[in-house]
């Protein structure tokens, strides 16, 4: 969750710079600066995880049969987690994608000045893919985070009012998001579709090879006479 949201935020900032500031993109995202951005995302993730160990919010929850973030341990900390690990990154991503959509609409309506670089079709396809990834991430993780805000507002009164099925559904909905990315890339990205096709063909070919080999060995065993019969 934490690493994913910072990664999505980093990608949104990158796409915004690439599409809206393409003339200076290579200078902004040089090899050195790109490595620094990746390092920063990892550092933000590690810094965000450490307080969980200090506050003691990671506990076993029998409702989901796993050790997870307990929203009722500390109201202030839960609110801080939701704000800085979900709301703020989502606002940054929304701002970046709104800028890109504004540019896309300018291109469609032909009101974009001709002295600026035009949006390439491949760039637009990549943007749409990442935008869909962001939208699904926000949809999948929003219920669990909003439940966290409700519980943190008044743990004693609100925690018992949250139906168990609602919490469990929002919990598994959030983590199911990780399974969707491969599907999204496969549907919207031609390179991924080609690689998926190669993998499937390779697996099917391997299965057929082993099946043919097994049948061939079985036939040879059946045709080979028994040693006792041969000695007679």
UniProtKB/TrEMBL annotation:
Membrane-spanning segments: 35-58, 78-105, 126-153, 165-188
Domain G-protein coupled receptors family 1 profile: 1-185
Keyword Chaperone found: no
Subcellular location, principal: membrane
Membrane topology according to the record: Multi-pass membrane protein
Xref: Gene3D superfamilies: Rhodopsin 7-helix transmembrane proteins
Single GO MF descriptor: melatonin receptor activity
Keyword list, A-Z: Cell membrane, G-protein coupled receptor, Membrane, Receptor, Transducer, Transmembrane, Transmembrane helix
Compartments where found: Cell membrane
Pfam families on file: 7tm_1
Any one of the GO CC terms: plasma membrane
Family listed: Belongs to the G-protein coupled receptor 1 family.
UniProt-recorded name of the protein: Melatonin receptor type 1A
Source organism per UniProt: Rusa unicolor (Sambar)
Lineage: Eukaryota, Metazoa, Chordata, Craniata, Vertebrata
